[in-house]
Design brief:
Blueprint lengths: L3 E10 L4 E11 L2 E13 L1 H18 L4 E6 L2 H7 L8 H14 L4 E6 L5 H17 L6
Parallel strand pairs: 1-4, 4-5
Antiparallel strand pairs: 1-2, 2-3
Amino acid sequence: MDAEALVYTDGASRGNPGPCAYAFLIIRGDEVVARRSEYLGRCTNNEAEYTAVARAMEEALRLGIRRIRVHSDSRLVISQLTGRWRVKDPRMRALSSRIKELASKFEVVEFVNVPREDPLIRAADHMCNRTLDEVAGDFIV
């Protein structure tokens, strides 16, 4: 199945590093075809942001989607994935490599930085925070 979709991702951390979660929404046409939020344990906000992109791409591939536009409010992640900025941190380098490997399985992948006020980014952020509330509560390190 050849399909096109919009992907909205977010990662959140309570403390940096601290308890983290990621979330994503995959939208095809007017329909949300996938949504997920998951607790990651202790990591940095940037690791959560990168993980959100990777997990969303994995799910898009599973759904048979081959053309995606990935939206994130993380300027760092989008700038690194598009090659505008270097990836210096070894953990981010590993996540970036995983995303590039996933990207090679798509016909088209576009990475777009959007403001955190975007309604679908806000929805993903809400999902992250709900997951953190359920698992980590107000825990801050």
